[in-house]
Amino acid sequence: MGPRTRPAGPPRLDRVSTEPNRADLGKDPSRVSRMFDQVAARYDLTNMAMTFGLDALWREATTRAVAPKPGERILDLAAGTAKSSASLTRTGAQVVAADFSPGMLAEGKRHFGDIRNLEFVQADAMDLPFADGEFDAVTMSYGLRNVNLPRVAIGELLRVTKPGGRLVINEFSTPPNPVFRGLYRFYNDQVLPRVARLVGSNGEAYDYLNESIQAWPDQPTLAAWIREAGWTDVAYRNLTFGIVALHRGTKPSA
């Protein structure tokens, strides 16, 4: 199969469903998309409450790891409400905020649609609507574990990155310290669901969040997946004792 080219126009943003929805670890794409549609309006507020504001520090760490430069073209996959995308545009990079959820993209456009070097595209992480080697850097925050076949998505990110381009994945992970890991599991099991129901617009969706975090592989396993996809110079760094981890890689030049 030859190189792909970009479609003539942006994918259509379908109407957001209002039927109550909760994804599960089967990660059916349509259910995952509808679930995020329903939490979009209060997504940022809920994240801030659940992480006690740490989400802003993690977002800044991700932006520094991507190190966007003026004129670069950067893909922010699973961009959600595009807060991370907006952060990447501040140096003058051209950023594509891509997400599977039309509700999330609509919320992002409502807040950041006036940023000239930011565009919004509805996209499936396992079949990206972009040309081979289109981006100088690609990044994905808290979205990879929601993909039905995450290793396929990692391969797609490699495909759309230029030779020598950069990958940064920020994802919930496994705290290496057993004592802290136990406290973290208690928080996720007992506290997080209550906060989500108090602040969020679809409390059951955050039950899935907890389940998906517990089922997600640890840092070395994700690093191995990234290497197997063809990325080089793969490394990771824990943030906040390993609650989340930044994984990096480089696409080979040749």
TrEMBL record:
Pfam families: Ubie_methyltran. It is an enzyme of class 2 (transferase). Pathway: Quinol/quinone metabolism; menaquinone biosynthesis; menaquinol from 1,4-dihydroxy-2-naphthoate: step 2/2. It catalyses: a 2-demethylmenaquinol + S-adenosyl-L-methionine = a menaquinol + S-adenosyl-L-homocysteine + H(+). PROSITE patterns: SAM_MT_UBIE (PS51608). It comes from the Bacteria. Keywords: Menaquinone biosynthesis, Methyltransferase, S-adenosyl-L-methionine, Transferase. InterPro entries: SAM-dependent_MTases_sf (IPR029063), UbiE/COQ5_MeTrFase (IPR004033). One of its GO terms (molecular function) is demethylmenaquinone methyltransferase activity. Residues 12-29 have a biased composition (Basic and acidic residues). HAMAP family: MenG_UbiE_methyltr (MF_01813). Methyltransferase required for the conversion of demethylmenaquinol (DMKH2) to menaquinol (MKH2). This is Demethylmenaquinone methyltransferase. The gene is menG.
